[in-house]
Amino acid sequence: MLCASDYIAKSGWRHGSRVRSARERGTWSINIEPCSRDLRSTSEGQKHGSRRNNDHWTSEEVKELVDGVSVYGVGPWTKLKNERFPISIRTAVHLKDKWRNLVKAFTGNVKRRISPRLDKDCVEKIKRLAADYPRK
DNA sequence: CTTAGGG
DNA sequence: CCCTAAG
Questions:
Q1: Within-domain flag for A13
Q2: What pLDDT digit, counting tens, does each position of A53-91 carry?
Q3: Locate the Myb-like domain: which residues (predicted)?
Q4: Is the CB of A125 under 7 A from strand C?
Q5: Average pLDDT estimate for A48-53
Q6: Scanning A4, A74, A84, A87, which has the fewest C-beta atoms within 10 Å of its C-beta?
Q7: What is the CATH number of the domain that holds A133?
Q8: Which nucleotide is nearest to A94 (CA to C1')?
């Protein structure tokens, strides 16, 4: 019965040692920009003081995602992506992945502190939406 | 290309 | 996150 076939080994996002980062992840800045102050083509370069440039989702993204889902629904991630954040290279695959991960992180385990301390409203919406249409 | 599921 | 499969 399939022995320990853990070809993936690491359950994280890295696939062993692929390390293919550094792709088209330069600018994204969600819909809501705190202040139009960017484009610093001077030195610094690799340091980035940085806000949320690439990698990892944040409460802002989750909020937008939940907001879009609450009105659009699960499925049309493409539309959501084009309506919410056409900027950035967040494709439907990523959106779905985030949703899945979020739902799995909230449903069931009520006692769990998530990474970026999401607001109660956010969690409630996610739970409500996740329980609304069970695509499982 | 987009959605859906698994690793 | 990345890959694969089906539409």
A1: no
A2: 567 888 888 888 888 998 999 999 999 998 888 777 788
A3: 49-103
A4: no
A5: 50
A6: A4
A7: 1.10.246.220
A8: C1
